[in-house]
Write a structure and sequence with these properties.
alpha+beta, Thiol Ester Dehydrase, Chain A, six-stranded antiparallel sheet, about 45% strand, FabZ, lipid metabolism, 3-hydroxyacyl-[acyl-carrier-protein] dehydratase FabZ, FabA_FabZ
Length: about 140
């Protein structure tokens, strides 16, 4: 299943400037999702991070990964209209800079779920090389 930005906005409550996924390239509801984020010099964070040397903040890379995972979780019919909240972030690692012009390849895979709480493995790549990875704990909640 592929989703464009309009379809993503039907699932996620996030909006500009905090919607950090441009396209879902593959999604197996409740299991995994892959997406992309086209990093642009026009984004607000680059005004201050860092002037003259724009680098996408690691926390925003993790948020983009979480949003891809949220698409997978919220694509299940029983989760329609709900939101996904962070429960924790473990083993976050940042391997290379992400800069304007990069296409961030995002992949989040659910590895465990009990009721509304789950754990997902997440990896962000640029040109096939790992830029960041983390294990994300999440909770599905009513809005």
């Amino acid at each position: 299943m592929e989703l464009d930005i309009n379809q993503i906005q039907e699932i996620l409550p996030h909006r500009y400037p905090f919607l950090l996924v441009d396209r879902i390239t593959d999604c197996t509801p409740g299991e995994s999702a892959k997406g992309i984020k086209c990093v642009s010099a026009n984004e607000m964070q680059f005004m201050g991070h860092f002037p003259g040397n724009p680098i996408m903040p690691g926390v925003l890379i993790i948020e983009a990964l979480a949003q891809v995972g949220a698409v997978a979780a919220l694509s299940l019919p029983e989760n329609k209209g709900k939101i996904v909240l962070f429960g924790g972030i473990k083993n976050a690692r940042f391997k290379q800079r992400v800069i304007p012009g990069d296409v961030l390849e995002l992949e989040t895979t659910m590895v465990q779920r009990k009721g509304p709480v789950g754990i997902a493995d997440a990896v962000a790549k640029v040109n096939g090389k790992v830029a960041a990875s983390a294990q994300l704990t999440f909770a599905i909640a009513n809005e």
